[in-house]
Amino acid sequence: MSGGETETPVGCEATPGGGDKKKDSLGTAGSPAHLIIKDLGEIHSRLLDHRPVIQGETRYFVKEFEEKRGLREMRVLENLRNMIHETNEHTLPKCREIMQDNLNQVLQRLRAASDSVCRLQQREQERKKMKSQFLLSGAEEILEFVENKKQTTEEKHPSLPPPCVLNTHL
């Protein structure tokens, strides 16, 4: 390798005209070396390139998640529907019945209390009426007594002025 010769790499032929373009020494696409390189490329991509596997697993996970989520939401909605049906069919009528019974009892108690209050008010009015009649009868007796005393006093002392007249001229 001396002088002005150019070296040609092993496995490559020099092109006429002095160009440095390399020619595939492995031959055509159907040659055994080419098939081995192609197989090595596939093995390399399968062993070291995990993108297709990861993408497939991701799609599967998302699909399963959405399906399970949809099923879970459907179960929740079904449970709510059953609960509403149970409430409408059983709980509400039972509550209405109990409320009606209790309301009737409360109304009976209220009527009884109202009747008791009315009786107490009537007794109080009767008592006040009797007291006022007693006071009036006592007042009449006192007035009669005073009138009798006045007459007896006037009879005994005719020259005295009447007891209610005041002397306003001083």
Automatic annotation (TrEMBL):
<dbReference type="GO" id="GO:0031083">
    <property type="term" value="C:BLOC-1 complex"/>
</dbReference>
<dbReference type="Pfam" id="PF14942">
    <property type="entry name" value="Muted"/>
</dbReference>
<protein>
    <recommendedName>
        <fullName>Biogenesis of lysosome-related organelles complex 1 subunit 5</fullName>
    </recommendedName>
</protein>
<feature type="region of interest" description="Disordered">
    <location>
        <begin position="1"/>
        <end position="28"/>
    </location>
</feature>
<dbReference type="InterPro" id="IPR017243">
    <property type="entry name" value="Bloc1s5"/>
</dbReference>
<dbReference type="GO" id="GO:0030133">
    <property type="term" value="C:transport vesicle"/>
</dbReference>
<comment type="similarity">
    <text>Belongs to the BLOC1S5 family.</text>
</comment>
<feature type="region of interest" description="Disordered">
    <location>
        <begin position="150"/>
        <end position="170"/>
    </location>
</feature>
